[in-house]
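Narrative of activities, Objective 1.

The group set out to show that a structural description can be obtained from nothing but a protein's sequence at a throughput compatible with the screening campaign. Below is one input-output pair from the validation batch, recorded exactly as produced.
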Amino acid sequence: MAAGGRRRPVGRTGRRPGNPATRERILTEARRAFAESGYTGASLRHIAARAEVDPALIHHYFGTKEQLFLTIVQVPINPAEVIARIADGPIDSIGTRLVGTMMDVWESEAGPAMVATVRRVLADPSDTRTLQEFVAGQIIRRVIAAVRPRPEESPVRAALVTAQILGLVVGRYVLEIAPLATVRRAELVASVGATVQRYLTGPLPEVGS
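Output recorded for this entry:
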């Protein structure tokens, strides 16, 4: 890809495949549940009921709801590892680490699969909403928690950071918009990282002002 760089391996944990028919039925109903209710609204108990299986089977085959979702969208990363990398360091540089780490992921061996996933998701509005919920709720929310803002500020900060990060990765790696796709990585980490840092720790405008 135009903005590709040195590819770095990104780990992800896995589980035993299990019975193919049962796994596929769970995946089919999970896809429908996420499309209808979004990531937040789809519960494992509801998915299990639709698939006519015991909820314990979902845990056995996939683990958590997060792992089930990642299996469906075929994202080959472990969010916990990514978040740990971002949170490991001073708060006053967490914005730069967030941008740098996300770019590491997209420029790793997982990059082509991530691009394919996002292109597929963008073709379906319901999938797009689910991905936005997942990124905001399962990744950005955990980064926000490390900053410890006032509770009433967390949703606004999370929305701003999510928009910035999704805009960067879609523009650079998926749509390959010029000149964003060819700007040097270090320049983007510095400039976008500063904006993300402000969204995470800087003052926010008063709601309604």
